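TA notes, week 10

Several of you asked for a full example with nothing omitted. So below is the full record: structure tokens for the whole chain, then the designed sequence directly under it. When grading your own attempts, check the secondary structure regions first.
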């Protein structure tokens, strides 16, 4: 036996400095903010502003300014009748803008949506009027046609490698030509005021002749927010991750309730809530859930944020791109049906003019970034509120259409400038 002294396990370990400070547990900053109460939220709000995280703040401030100016110029602007008109006419272009939000989140563009919307109105008129097809079946086939057209664009972009700008520009020309061919020498086809067209029409309101309709919608919206937030709170609490306190959830619900019930009161003073707006809001809620709560939505943001990063994460980038353009085509078709329901006709003018520019402008003005990876579907609503308010306000003041274009263009430029400055600020602060 060797007399060599063996070292114990404790002797092998490095000496412990008893004077060294104990390890500090890392605390999620969101918890600290919420523990500080109102002061914490104000501090976080200031930090976000300095870091370029503006969210929907610019468009909300802009909307308040626009409404204030027009109300000063004409006291009829904020009247219930005018608010009903704004809420009805924003839905059609808003639907097209909603589909564009998905494309913009990828950092791409779809220039075909206006032509697809006009073609869809023509296809529906041919199915339902010329061939006497059931109007609901014609509606489904028309929407599926839009989805198919969008998928074709996505295939050429994702699989063949043709830039989305070129593919959809070609589609804009081609589908417009097909619409002209389908309408023929007459240049228009009438659509009967029945079924879905009646529901979407200007004379159709949620729960007609019942003042409770608008308040029911407001109650459902507030209840949905409250229940969804509490379920999310319970889920995050169980997982041991930061969650919104009940007081914050209650404040959010109260804020939504104030806006919703005031809107319901104003609209009820005239005719109520247009069905077109109700359907648009339902579409917004569904798309918001898809983007924020599903795997598909997370993949869309991932591809828009970094294509190479998405590939390395195992995401089928080509499939996501095709699906997104199919969604854009589908919503373009729905928007075309909304537009057709305003006049009950499919005409050569459908999908022409400034429809494309207004749909893109709505998504961008509402807060969706042209650079991809940032935005939400509610930007379609906020952007269309701004655009439709400008158009309606200038109409009340008997301003020329040229003035409308110039002001809308200036607002769009301002939105893009704010987005660019915001992204640059975030990069400077290391938050991009």
């Amino acid at each position: 036996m060797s007399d060599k002294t063996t070292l114990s396990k404790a002797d092998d370990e490095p000496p412990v400095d008893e004077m060294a400070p104990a390890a500090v547990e890392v605390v999620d900053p969101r918890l600290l903010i919420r523990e500080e109460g109102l002061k914490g939220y104000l501090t976080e709000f200031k930090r976000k502003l300095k870091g370029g995280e503006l969210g929907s703040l610019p468009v909300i401030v802009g909307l308040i300014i626009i409404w204030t100016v027009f109300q000063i110029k004409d006291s009829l602007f904020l009247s219930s009748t005018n608010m009903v008109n704004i809420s009805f006419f924003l839905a059609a272009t808003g639907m097209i803008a909603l589909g564009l939000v998905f494309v913009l989140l990828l950092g791409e563009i779809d220039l075909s949506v206006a032509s697809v919307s006009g073609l869809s109105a023509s296809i529906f008129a041919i199915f339902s009027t010329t061939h006497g097809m059931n109007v609901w079946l014609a509606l489904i086939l028309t929407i599926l046609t839009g989805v198919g057209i969008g998928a074709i664009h996505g295939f050429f972009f994702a699989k063949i490698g043709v830039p989305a700008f070129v593919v959809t520009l070609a589609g804009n020309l081609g589908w417009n030509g097909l619409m002209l061919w389908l309408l023929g020498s007459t240049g228009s086809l009438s659509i009967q005021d029945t079924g879905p067209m009646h529901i979407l029409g200007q004379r159709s309101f949620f729960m007609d002749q019942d003042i409770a309709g608008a308040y029911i919608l407001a109650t459902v919206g507030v209840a949905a927010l409250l229940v969804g937030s509490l379920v999310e709170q319970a889920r995050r609490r169980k997982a041991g991750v930061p969650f919104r306190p009940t007081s914050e959830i209650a404040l959010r619900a109260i804020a939504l309730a104030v806006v919703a019930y005031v809107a319901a009161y104003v609209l009820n003073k005239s005719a109520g809530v247009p069905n077109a707006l109700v359907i648009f809001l339902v579409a917004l809620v569904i798309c918001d859930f898809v983007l924020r709560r599903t795997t598909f939505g997370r993949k869309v943001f991932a591809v828009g944020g970094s294509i190479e990063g998405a590939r390395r994460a195992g995401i089928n980038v080509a499939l996501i791109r095709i699906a997104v353009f199919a969604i854009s085509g589908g919503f373009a078709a729905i928007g075309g049906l909304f537009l057709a329901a305003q006049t009950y006709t499919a005409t050569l003018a459908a999908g022409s003019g400034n429809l494309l520019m207004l749909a893109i402008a709505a998504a961008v003005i509402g807060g969706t970034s042209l650079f991809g990876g940032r935005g939400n579907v509610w930007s379609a609503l906020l952007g269309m509120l701004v655009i439709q308010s400008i158009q309606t306000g200038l109409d009340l003041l008997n301003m020329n259409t040229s003035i409308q274009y110039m002001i809308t263009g200036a607002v769009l430029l301002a939105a893009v400038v704010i987005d660019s400055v915001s992204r640059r600020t975030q990069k400077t602060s290391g938050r991009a």
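The chain is about 70% helix and 0% strand. Use that as a sanity check on your answer.
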